[in-house]
Amino acid sequence: MPRKLPIHSKTRRKTLINSRTLILIAFSLFLCIVWQTSGLCAIENLVAAWNFNQGTGNTVKDISGNGHNGSISGAKWVQGKFGKALEFNGDGDQVLVPHSDKLNLQKGLTVEAWIYPTGWNPDLNAIAQKWEDGSNRRQYQLTVYKEKNWWYATCCGDKWKPRAEGQINVKLAKWIHLAGTYDGKKLRNYTNGKLDIETVDMTSGLFASDVPVAIGGYGPKTKKVTYGQNRHFMGIIDEVRIWGKALSEKEIRDGMKGPIASVKTNRKLPVVWGDVKYH
Fold this sequence. Notes:
Layout: H1 7-37, E1 46-50, E2 59-60, E3 70-73, E4 76-79, E5 84-89, E6 94-97, E7 109-117, E8 125-130, E9 140-145, E10 148-153, E11 163-169, E12 176-182, E13 187-191, E14 194-198, E15 213-215, E16 234-243, H2 249-255
Antiparallel strand pairs: 1-16, 2-3, 3-6, 4-5, 5-16, 6-15, 7-12, 7-16, 8-9, 8-15, 9-10, 10-11, 12-13, 13-14
């Protein structure tokens, strides 16, 4: 007949198991925190994120872990909304991120950024885009036009439409958060986390585009495509993010409160902003 263990032995064994479990959980969280600082801690639907916090060099690192690093052309490192950022002169400065199929988002996306404009070009003032004029390679473009947030995402054979033309003023020398979304049906733009305007239904999906993503500028200058080179952004850009889904107003409002690098999660779930530590 098997010998029964004393009650205190069972308690000790249970305590030991619980301690080991806690140690494993703590170690997993530690690894996630370490990996997140290197952009390796995956967040579902985050396609690319540039927080510019390296503060030096000629490359901006994509901290999403998806490898969409960009090359800096002319822009200067400065203090940003959260840590470091890049300042653009409105006359050719930009960051170019090479084309990737992962950035070719046709069924749903969000593009968002913090900006500090110091002046306006008379035409568009490009913030972030996958777009090339003079061709059929237009896909999405977050920009400011006549001091309003404009969000383009093209389909259906029209080179400039549909577009969501914002109504809220974007003021100079102030930090402001802009975002544009497409959910497979509608375009929406948001200013400082508030819905500005939405378009009619657009269910056909977006055009494909094989051009680079440009931040602060209008893309590569080529002999064939020169139109749009007066459409660069003048001022500071920080915390540019591209998502593979349309974020809700609440997700945008909560997410703009802090840098994406502070997310400490490795769960394959939609982002829970309660997991974000704001600085």
